[in-house]
TrEMBL record:
Cell compartment(s), UniProt: Cell membrane
PANTHER family: OLIGOPEPTIDE TRANSPORT SYSTEM PERMEASE PROTEIN APPC, PEPTIDE ABC TRANSPORTER PERMEASE PROTEIN
The protein, known as: ABC transporter permease
Topology relative to the membrane: Multi-pass membrane protein
Keywords, alphabetical: Cell membrane, Membrane, Transmembrane, Transmembrane helix, Transport
Amino acid sequence: MKRLSLNVVLGGAIVGIVVAGAVLGAVWTPYDPLKINFVGRLAPPGAAHWFGTDEFGRDVLSRLMAAAATSMLISLSTVAAAGLLGTAVGLVSGYARGWTDRILMAFNDALLAFPAILLALGLLTVAGANSTGIIVALGLAYTPSVARIVRGTVLSLREREFVEASRVMGNSELYTVLRHILPNCVGPMTVLATSMFGWVLLAESALSFLGLGVPPPAPTWGNMLAASRPFIAQAVWLAIFPGLCISLTLLGINLLGDALRDRLDPRMRGAS
């Protein structure tokens, strides 16, 4: 029996804890994350409030759990949207080639010229600063990266023997793409989706930190960090705990992404 690598164990444990907290935070929290209690404002971590309270007396742990649910939902939805749209564009561009490929890739390269966070900022001015707007903006911002990866994979597959055999057998182009080419894109897409989940989580936190994320009082890790700035000297826990959540989640995702790459990339398996 093969031993699990340290990346799988450590990354899986971190991501598992975060996901469990997000699922639990969607249905239950120790306190109401939105309830204001000025009597208990800026209380340090203790028995009643493990992670302390914020400037409005709201329980920090409860808000972190609720924020985890929001961040996970936005990240998963964004990765799914970018993955579906980018895969469709990459499949059409790589398989059709010719003018179709040139036009799609010209537009794709134009979008790639902008940093994803900058493109998302521009799109948010149109879509609005809310959960749906963030998903749309980040989904469109990361679609070009997906399309480029899928197109490269399709170009390497379209001339392979099994694809030629499918054409000789009289199968339609659509059947050949969906049955023989798309399944072979799953490996690279899985690795990319894992990395992209971390990018989206960090981008969502950055947008919330800038005030362009989910509007208050709904908690996100980014807007909790932003709200902690005026109180950093007297209530340092307001910045420490959201920052730790973001950092540990990104660490866990990156470790799992490295393990998936080692598992799915033949070159990495050979090196191992």
